Amino acid sequence: MKQLKDYRRIVIKIGSALLVDRSTGLKQSWLESLGQDIASLSQAGVEVLVVSSGAIALGRTVLGLPKKSLKLEESQAAAAAGQIALAKAYADVLGSHGIKSGQILLTLADTEERRRYLNARATIETLLKLGAVPIINENDTVATTEIRYGDNDRLAARVATMMGADLLILLSDIDGLYTAPPHKNPDAQFLPLVTAITPQIEAMAGAAASELSRGGMKTKLDAGKIANAAGTAMIITSGTRMAPLSAIDHGERATLFEPSRAPVNAWKTWISGNLEPAGKLLVDAGAAKALKSGKSLLPAGVKEIEGQFERGDTVAVLNEDRREIARGLIAYDAADARKIAGHKSDEISTILGYDARAAMIHRNDLVVRGVTAVETEEA
């Protein structure tokens, strides 16, 4: 298993039981050790995102709610109180290392519905560019199904794929995958490496051992399938020890789930093969050439727009011979796209009356036919 500093972008999911003691509340010393780990990775040039459970568990101590199972509305009230305390805790810990943070509340729907997906990703990307650590939590104050079934593992996987992370780490109160639930079967064998999540692997999952954690091994394997399918590696390991990320590098027990392909290629394969275009953009020769070199599609190069579509829909890009040369997720709806087509990017805000993105289709959301993806720093 390679060192964490050798990854480019890491999503870390933290379980409730790691952050919150049911009697005393926030585990401050543990969180401080995690903050040191994150600071070390940041100094090494690794971009870190945190998907944190714990709002409900922390909020029930803040509000003095009983330790018994909570009603849905009580859980949502606990989440409302806990999110404030959780965000402050992360801000204080990371701030002590000179690192800024920003809170983002999502539900699974925010990573599945394309327009909301684009907004969420743009916000997170901006935080990362500004050197801040995004602290992402499920929006338990409005979620219903998620709040009952515990989908932060899967939410973390969706965030990892959305952001093109090359590693997802699930920190929990279990140290990896066993052939059977180890708290039930003392003869269970530990598996350090999983190259494919087969039905046999899924059969090894058991229920959660912790009362504070809502997800068990099954949700973690579900997360692994999401992550690996998009080219993101996943590690399941125990976070109960201090400095849990450093512990991975020092050889503490962990299960690595290996993906079969690279993150960017997997994402672009999904765009290219699994989405039907809702419209078409006819571009000039200059724009077609720019796309082949890995650039974003700017409005200036768009000559004509066909069809009706919403922001985040898939559109086909045609050259002057009306041959499809690319396909991608568009940043504007059809009406606004028609208004800015043929105009320079610095004219967009004046034309539309609001601050808008420079690219009509960003390079990360664009698949050029017959061309391997080229990553560039600028649009």
TrEMBL record:
Q: Where does substrate bind?
A: 53, 140, 152
Tell me which SMART domains the record gives.
PUA (SM00359)
User: Its catalytic activity?
Assistant: L-glutamate + ATP = L-glutamyl 5-phosphate + ADP
Q: Which InterPro entries match?
A: AceGlu_kinase-like_sf (IPR036393), Asp/Glu/Uridylate_kinase (IPR001048), G5K_ProB (IPR041739), Glu/AcGlu_kinase (IPR001057), Glu_5kinase (IPR011529), Glu_5kinase/COase_Synthase (IPR005715), Glutamate_5-kinase_CS (IPR019797), PUA (IPR002478)
**GO CC annotation terms, alphabetical:** cytosol
Write out the entry's keywords from A to Z. Answer: Amino-acid biosynthesis, ATP-binding, Cytoplasm, Kinase, Nucleotide-binding, Proline biosynthesis, Transferase
Residues binding ATP are 13, 172-173
Q: EC number(s) on record?
A: 2.7.2.11
Specify the superkingdom: Bacteria
GO MF, one term, reads: ATP binding
Q: Entry's Pfam families? A: AA_kinase, PUA
Q: Where is the PUA domain?
A: 279-361
Please verify whether the record's keywords include DNA repair.
no
Q: Which GO terms describe its biological process?
A: L-proline biosynthetic process
Q: Give the family from UniProt.
A: Belongs to the glutamate 5-kinase family.
Q: Which HAMAP family does the UniProt entry name for this protein? A: ProB (MF_00456)
* Function of the protein: Catalyzes the transfer of a phosphate group to glutamate to form L-glutamate 5-phosphate.
Q: Which PANTHER family match?
A: GLUTAMATE 5-KINASE, ISOPENTENYL PHOSPHATE KINASE
> Which named protein is this?
Glutamate 5-kinase
Species of provenance: Brucella grignonensis
Name of the gene encoding the protein in the UniProt record: proB
